[in-house]
Hints:
Catalytic activity: jasmonate + 2-oxoglutarate + O2 = (1R,2R)-12-hydroxyjasmonate + succinate + CO2
Order of helices and strands: HHEHHEHHEEHHEEEEEEHEEEEH
Shape: globular
Helix content: 25-40%
Radius of gyration: 20 Å
Keywords: Dioxygenase, Iron, Jasmonic acid signaling pathway, Metal-binding, Oxidoreductase, Plant defense
Strand content: 15-25%
Number of strands: 14
Bound molecules: N-oxalylglycine, nickel (II) ion
Distance between the termini: 26 Å
Domain Fe2OG dioxygenase: 225-334
InterPro entries: DIOX_N, IPNS-like_FE2OG_OXY, IPNS-like_sf, Oxoglu/Fe-dep_dioxygenase_dom, Plant_2OG-oxidoreductases
Protein name: Fe2OG dioxygenase domain-containing protein
Amino acid sequence: SQTLDTPNLISLVSTKLNFNMELPSEWLEPIVRVQTLSDTGSPVIPDRYIKPLPQRPSFNIQSDSQNIPIIDLYELTKGSATAQKAIMDQISIACREWGFFQVVNHGISGELVDGAREIWKEFFHQPMEVKQNYANAPKTYEGYGSRLGIQKGAILDWSDYFFLHYLPSKLKNHNKWPSQPPFLRGVTEEYSKEIVRLGNLLLWVFSINLGLQEDYLKGAFGGDDIGACLRVNFYPKCPQPDLTLGLSSHSDPGGMTFLLPDEHVSGLQVRKGDEWITVKPARHAIIVNIGDQIQVSWGRRAKVLTNGIYKSVEHRVIVNPDKERVSLAYFFNPKSDVLIKPATELVTSTKPALYQPMTYDDYRLFIRTKGPQGKSQ
Ligand code: OGA
Ligand code: NI
């Protein structure tokens, strides 16, 4: 039998990727707002939202104790060296075993967290004409959108969203952020600043946990030129939640994600082996997960050293018949033109690189063309 060695695997993957892709300037078919569909009150969803059987959610009863780890960050910056080490160890275990955890006492005030969520909920409750002013296009995805992926005839997810850039500063454009409700831009600006602080803190923690220089990952991400962008997800009520998903299974393409979940409505499910675990958010918690870029850079090392892997774990969102849900997903990404590849010191002739070098720009283009596809990318 023939084993697929790594170089072959890489060329196999390369042939599947077409780096000369370009995204169209307009969507290839008319955009339908899921919120509008939901508001009609129809008891059935259109065929386009019905998932094939194996992808449909199961609403199995889950024991109360099943949840992603909850980590209190208070002592990380304020505690003794011993206390600090204990928190770092919790993070290390969560990264290896789950790829997902929630943090509390993260330094972002409960008021700001609630305020950011509420003001974005208000945005989606404005009249459609107001939101349509920000209608997005596949080229940059910035603005008000209702689909991920461009393929004509694709089966769609039951959600709308708003996508905006915060970093690098040259991509930030307040005119592309909603001007209403009045305080939205200010609150989003303040929340973004805090997320970037938290992101830098965790890059520092991950670097130390992986036995690297404390500023290594930050450097590998492009130093102060990292990317930070926000997708606010809006999941309207759905009359047939057992047939569809709010967001199909995917792993996040970037570095890491900070998700502010809805306080009242659960919906995020994380894959653990063959199971889907529904996340139960703690009050004012922020959910952190590892993205594909950290898997590429560090997966191999983690595997060698810890017999576990820092992996970018699959997740999805289920919807609800009588409750809408809103979440703020902040993507913390490498600078878009830095080549992301396994660390040189970890690659030898007997342990070849598992991934080909690729910029985040190219990778994202690929993802944006295809939309959510589990872990296939
Ligand atoms: C995402 C995501 C989860 C959620 O936006 O990538 O996984 O709960 N969101 O909305
Ligand atoms: Ni995600």
